[in-house]
């Protein structure tokens, strides 16, 4: 009570004291909300940076996959391994579930 007496003189009515304390509580609450919003903003910004990093990494990986899967690269490697093109491909049915290719 001494703290309140130091801030608000004793001649002031009880209603005014309650109003001053209410405004002070609202101010503290407001400051806490602003602090919470600022922290949330920093978290969102950090997450957006992480998303951008992951997206750029994903794009790089997709590009590498496309390069490795490209038909011209596969054909080039087949020629380097001295593989030849198959002119007539026939599938032979066997009693198993799988199909087997025959040249």
Characterization of the model:
Helices cover 70% and strands 8% of the residues. It is mainly α. The protein has one domain (2-102). It has a two-stranded antiparallel ribbon with strand order 1-2. Strand 1 (90-93) and strand 2 (99-102) form a beta hairpin.
Write the SSE topology:
Elements: H1 2-7, H2 14-69, H3 71-80, E1 90-93, E2 99-102
Antiparallel strand pairs: 1-2
Salient structural properties:
3 helices, mainly alpha, 70% helix, two-stranded antiparallel sheet, 103 residues
Give the helices and strands as they follow along the chain.
HHHEE
Q: What does the average pLDDT come to?
A: 83
Tell how many strands the DSSP assignment holds.
Answer: 2
Question: What percentage of amino acids are in beta strands?
Answer: 5-15%
From the spread of the alpha carbons, the general shape counts as rod-shaped
The separation of the N and C termini measures: 100 Å
> How large, in whole angstroms, is the Cα Rg?
38 Å
Whole-number tally of structural domains = 1
* Helix-strand category: mainly alpha
Strand order of the largest sheet: 1-2
Weakly predicted, low-confidence segments? none
Give the % helix.
Answer: 55-70%
Largest sheet report: 2 strands, antiparallel
Number of H- or I-type helical stretches: 3
């Amino acid at each position: 009570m001494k703290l309140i007496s130091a801030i608000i003189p004793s001649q002031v009515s009880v209603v005014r004291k309650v109003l001053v304390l209410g405004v002070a509580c609202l101010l503290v609450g407001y400051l806490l909300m602003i602090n919470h919003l600022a922290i949330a903003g920093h978290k969102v910004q950090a997450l957006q940076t992480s998303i951008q990093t992951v997206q750029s990494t994903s794009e790089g990986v997709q590009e590498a996959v496309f390069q490795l899967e490209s038909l011209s690269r596969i054909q080039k490697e087949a020629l380097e391994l001295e593989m030849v093109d198959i002119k007539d491909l026939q599938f032979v049915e066997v009693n198993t579930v799988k199909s087997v290719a025959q040249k």
